[in-house]
Amino acid sequence: MVLQDEGSQQKQGTGMTRILILLASLLVVGNVYALPPCSTAGFFHNCFATYIYPKGSEYVGEYKDGIPHGQGSLTFDDGSEILGEWKSGKPWNVVVYDSSGKFNHNYKDGVPQ
Question: Are residues 78 and 27 in the same domain?
Fold first, then answer.
Protein backbone atom coordinates (compact mmCIF):
# COMPACT_ATOMS: atom_id res chain seq x y z
CA MET A 1 0.00 0.00 0.00
CA VAL A 2 1.37 3.39 -0.95
CA LEU A 3 0.47 6.29 1.24
CA GLN A 4 0.53 9.82 -0.09
CA ASP A 5 0.47 12.92 1.96
CA GLU A 6 -1.75 15.85 1.13
CA GLY A 7 1.14 17.81 -0.42
CA SER A 8 1.94 15.13 -3.02
CA GLN A 9 -1.75 14.86 -3.96
CA GLN A 10 -1.85 18.63 -4.54
CA LYS A 11 1.29 18.43 -6.71
CA GLN A 12 -0.30 15.70 -8.84
CA GLY A 13 -3.46 17.77 -9.22
CA THR A 14 -1.42 20.81 -10.24
CA GLY A 15 0.49 18.76 -12.84
CA MET A 16 -2.75 17.44 -14.35
CA THR A 17 -4.16 20.97 -14.47
CA ARG A 18 -1.08 22.18 -16.32
CA ILE A 19 -1.37 19.36 -18.86
CA LEU A 20 -5.05 20.15 -19.48
CA ILE A 21 -4.28 23.85 -19.94
CA LEU A 22 -1.50 23.00 -22.39
CA LEU A 23 -3.77 20.71 -24.43
CA ALA A 24 -6.54 23.32 -24.53
CA SER A 25 -4.03 25.97 -25.65
CA LEU A 26 -2.77 23.75 -28.47
CA LEU A 27 -6.31 23.21 -29.75
CA VAL A 28 -6.96 26.96 -29.83
CA VAL A 29 -3.61 27.82 -31.43
CA GLY A 30 -4.00 25.05 -34.03
CA ASN A 31 -7.22 26.60 -35.29
CA VAL A 32 -5.68 30.07 -35.49
CA TYR A 33 -3.02 28.92 -37.95
CA ALA A 34 -5.28 26.86 -40.25
CA LEU A 35 -5.06 28.04 -43.84
CA PRO A 36 -8.22 29.31 -45.54
CA PRO A 37 -9.64 27.53 -48.57
CA CYS A 38 -8.18 28.64 -51.92
CA SER A 39 -10.29 30.73 -54.25
CA THR A 40 -12.16 28.69 -56.85
CA ALA A 41 -10.85 30.99 -59.56
CA GLY A 42 -7.42 32.49 -59.84
CA PHE A 43 -4.08 32.15 -58.09
CA PHE A 44 -3.62 29.79 -55.11
CA HIS A 45 -1.68 31.67 -52.43
CA ASN A 46 -1.36 30.73 -48.75
CA CYS A 47 -4.42 28.52 -48.85
CA PHE A 48 -5.66 24.92 -48.83
CA ALA A 49 -7.20 23.23 -51.88
CA THR A 50 -7.79 20.11 -53.92
CA TYR A 51 -6.48 20.22 -57.49
CA ILE A 52 -7.01 17.52 -60.10
CA TYR A 53 -4.34 17.51 -62.81
CA PRO A 54 -5.28 16.86 -66.47
CA LYS A 55 -3.89 13.29 -66.37
CA GLY A 56 -6.01 12.43 -63.30
CA SER A 57 -3.58 12.88 -60.39
CA GLU A 58 -5.01 14.73 -57.40
CA TYR A 59 -3.15 17.00 -54.96
CA VAL A 60 -4.86 17.85 -51.66
CA GLY A 61 -3.02 20.27 -49.44
CA GLU A 62 -1.45 23.63 -48.84
CA TYR A 63 -0.38 26.09 -51.53
CA LYS A 64 1.99 29.05 -51.58
CA ASP A 65 2.63 31.22 -54.64
CA GLY A 66 0.46 28.95 -56.79
CA ILE A 67 2.35 25.70 -56.10
CA PRO A 68 2.14 22.93 -53.48
CA HIS A 69 3.98 24.07 -50.36
CA GLY A 70 3.36 22.72 -46.86
CA GLN A 71 1.44 19.58 -45.89
CA GLY A 72 -0.27 17.68 -48.67
CA SER A 73 -0.86 14.45 -50.55
CA LEU A 74 -0.55 13.62 -54.21
CA THR A 75 -2.53 10.59 -55.39
CA PHE A 76 -1.84 9.19 -58.86
CA ASP A 77 -4.46 7.57 -61.06
CA ASP A 78 -2.93 4.11 -60.37
CA GLY A 79 -3.51 4.61 -56.60
CA SER A 80 0.12 5.29 -55.62
CA GLU A 81 0.50 8.20 -53.23
CA ILE A 82 2.99 10.72 -51.86
CA LEU A 83 2.17 12.07 -48.38
CA GLY A 84 3.90 14.71 -46.30
CA GLU A 85 5.65 18.06 -46.58
CA TRP A 86 6.08 19.79 -49.93
CA LYS A 87 8.45 22.67 -50.58
CA SER A 88 8.26 24.88 -53.66
CA GLY A 89 6.21 22.29 -55.53
CA LYS A 90 8.55 19.37 -54.81
CA PRO A 91 8.36 16.48 -52.33
CA TRP A 92 10.44 17.53 -49.31
CA ASN A 93 9.81 15.31 -46.29
CA VAL A 94 7.36 12.74 -47.62
CA VAL A 95 6.55 9.04 -47.69
CA VAL A 96 5.81 7.33 -51.02
CA TYR A 97 3.38 4.39 -51.18
CA ASP A 98 2.85 2.11 -54.18
CA SER A 99 -0.58 1.38 -55.66
CA SER A 100 -1.18 -1.46 -53.16
CA GLY A 101 -0.56 0.91 -50.23
CA LYS A 102 2.83 -0.54 -49.31
CA PHE A 103 5.75 1.70 -48.35
CA ASN A 104 7.97 2.33 -51.38
CA HIS A 105 10.50 4.97 -50.24
CA ASN A 106 10.69 8.40 -48.66
CA TYR A 107 12.24 11.82 -49.20
CA LYS A 108 14.23 13.65 -46.56
CA ASP A 109 14.97 17.33 -47.19
CA GLY A 110 14.07 16.82 -50.87
CA VAL A 111 16.39 13.84 -51.42
CA PRO A 112 14.98 10.36 -52.18
CA GLN A 113 16.12 7.83 -49.57
Answer: no
